[in-house]
């Protein structure tokens, strides 16, 4: 086989009908849909590697993946054709040539998520937000979110059966903002654990309703025990929204 060309694609997807990102034997995933589309377009079997996995029902407004192509690709033609093949819930926005050893997962500097809550019923938010009727104190939410920034070990918010070597994550941002009836939680880190953001949100809202104090929240982090944290927030409110890379990997 001749020399392969490595590319990064930037994409977005509505995760409602997908069993997450990661390819599985008996469930339809975003990765599978993309690999099928790319293999059809390039007329050879194409495997892709994403910047990270998202769980069943979780969305992405910005996700990256890399793949190797046996042919040199031209961006505008590629984007037109791949978007014509892919299902309507998945869109590819960009194609960039990268160095042969560039890696969508390992080269990422940071990842950002946004979690969306709506405080009142909306027909337009049913698959995109967590409908939360109980009152939430945004000052308390932000007081608790700021406590997260003091820590690096987030074992309390990780799925228990997971294959990671470390529960350490460096957080860059954790804050809430209110936009009318929407509450938005922004969180950025160098890496995230499985289920981490939804477990954090599910626990933070207990502070926001007054069921937990900020001291309780600190104690949960320090316990390093998932059983101490609260139930995970629903998948439909979570979006992977930004992944950043060093410019040096691009050609």
Overall CATH architecture of the largest domain: 2-Layer Sandwich
Q: Could you spell the SSE succession in H and E letters?
A: EHEEHEEEHEEHHE
Main beta-sheet strand count, sense and barrel state: 9 strands, mixed
Supply the CATH superfamily name of the largest domain: Pseudouridine synthase I, catalytic domain, C-terminal subdomain
What is the C-alpha radius of gyration, as a whole number of Å? 19 Å
Residues in β-strands, percent: 25-35%
Provide an overview of this structure:
- Substrate binds at residue 113.
- There is one protein chain.
- Helix content is 23%, strand content 26%.
- The chain has 251 residues and is α+β, with helices and mostly antiparallel strands.
- The protein folds into two domains: 5-106, Pseudouridine synthase I, catalytic domain, N-terminal subdomain (Alpha-Beta Plaits, 2-Layer Sandwich), CATH 3.30.70; 110-241, Alpha-Beta Plaits, CATH 3.30.70.660.
- The model has no long low-confidence stretch (mean pLDDT 96).
């Amino acid at each position: 086989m001749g020399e392969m060309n490595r590319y990064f694609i930037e994409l977005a997807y509505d995760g409602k009908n997908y069993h997450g990102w990661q390819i599985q034997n008996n469930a339809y995933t975003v990765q599978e849909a993309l690999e099928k589309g790319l293999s059809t377009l390039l007329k050879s079997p194409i495997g892709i590697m994403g910047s990270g996995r998202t769980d069943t029902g979780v969305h992405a407004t910005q996700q990256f993946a890399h793949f190797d192509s046996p042919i040199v690709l031209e961006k505008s033609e590629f984007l037109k054709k791949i978007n014509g093949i892919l299902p309507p819930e998945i869109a590819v926005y960009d194609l960039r040539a990268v160095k042969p050893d560039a890696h969508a997962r390992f080269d990422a500097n940071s990842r950002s998520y946004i979690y969306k809550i709506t405080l009142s019923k909306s027909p337009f938010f049913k698959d995109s937000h967590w409908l939360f009727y109980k009152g939430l104190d945004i000052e308390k939410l932000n007081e608790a979110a700021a406590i997260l920034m003091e820590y690096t070990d987030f074992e309390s918010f990780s799925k228990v059966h997971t294959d990671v070597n470390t529960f350490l994550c460096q957080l860059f941002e954790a804050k809430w903002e209110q936009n009318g009836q929407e509450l938005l939680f922004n969180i950025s880190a160098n890496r995230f654990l499985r289920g981490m953001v939804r477990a954090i949100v599910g626990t933070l809202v207990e502070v926001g309703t007054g069921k937990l104090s900020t001291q309780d929240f600190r104690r949960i982090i320090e316990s390093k025990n998932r059983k101490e944290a609260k139930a995970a927030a629903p998948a439909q409110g979570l979006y992977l929204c930004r992944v950043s890379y060093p410019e040096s990997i691009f050609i």
